[in-house]
Amino acid sequence: MEHDRARSSPTDPADPGRRRLLLGAAALAAAPATLLTASPAAARPATTDYPPAGWVPASTSNYTASNRPISYRIDRVIIHVTQETYADALAIFQNPAKQVSAHYVVRSNDGHVAQCVRNRNIGWHAGNWSYNTRSVGIEHEGWVDQPEYFTDAMYESSAALTAHICDTYGITKDREHIIGHVQVPGSDHTDPGPYWDWSRYIRLINTV
């Protein structure tokens, strides 16, 4: 997540620039108990786009309603690192003042997946409107300089999620189509950072 991600839409207000996303104590105080417990069975709708995911919806102020892939083709998966805890990231997406969201968040310790924005809608995660319209964004709990957060459970769970997205939308399972936030044109973000094992991740995506 690394600070913020402007929606960058031609019709959106000007990007307010880099700012702190969260004052941790205040956001946690406002967060529902279901976010803090983050039970896999909690807050699940009748269906999610990815069946194993729990449903923890972002504020409708933090994404653009759409009808993808009819309105926009989906041809990328963008990998992020939250620079926050799992609970804090979910609280950010539910805060309408934050103007940021990703479709999914993957928890470090057990690989649990929360879906926050439906795939048909446009998450505000890339800081580039064109890339937002064409991608699914996946946040991973942790910090770019703390590789211990990138657990086996996280890699395996995230790879299964990405494989499902690629199979659903006909996305090629390679590094041209599965990219880091750092690769988005115009981005000043560095995630997922130097400790993210891309070779392992792409291999897992192609073998799940």
Task: Provide a quick synopsis of the model.
With 208 residues, the chain is α/β, with parallel strands linked by helices.
Strand content: 5-15%
**N- and C-termini, Cα separation:** 26 Å
Number of strands: 8
Net shape:
globular
- Number of separate helices: 6
Which series of helices and strands comes N to C?
Answer: HHEEEHEEEHEHEH
Q: What is the helical fraction, as a range of percent?
A: 25-40%
- Side-by-side strand order of the widest sheet: 1-5-4-7-3-8
Integer-rounded radius of gyration: 15 Å
Q: What features would you highlight for this structure?
A:
single chain; 208 residues; alpha/beta; two-stranded antiparallel sheet; 6 helices
Q: Would you write up a description of this structure?
A:
The protein is of the alpha/beta class and 208 residues long. 25% of the residues lie in helices and 13% in strands. The protein contains six helices and eight strands, in the order H-H-E-E-E-H-E-E-E-H-E-H-E-H. A six-stranded mixed β-sheet has the order 1-5-4-7-3-8, sandwiched between helices. Strands 2-6 form a two-stranded antiparallel sheet. A hairpin with a 6-residue loop joins strand 4 and strand 5 (113-115). The protein is globular, with a radius of gyration of 15 Å. The two termini are 26 Å apart. 45% of the residues are buried. The model is unreliable at 2-44 (pLDDT under 50).
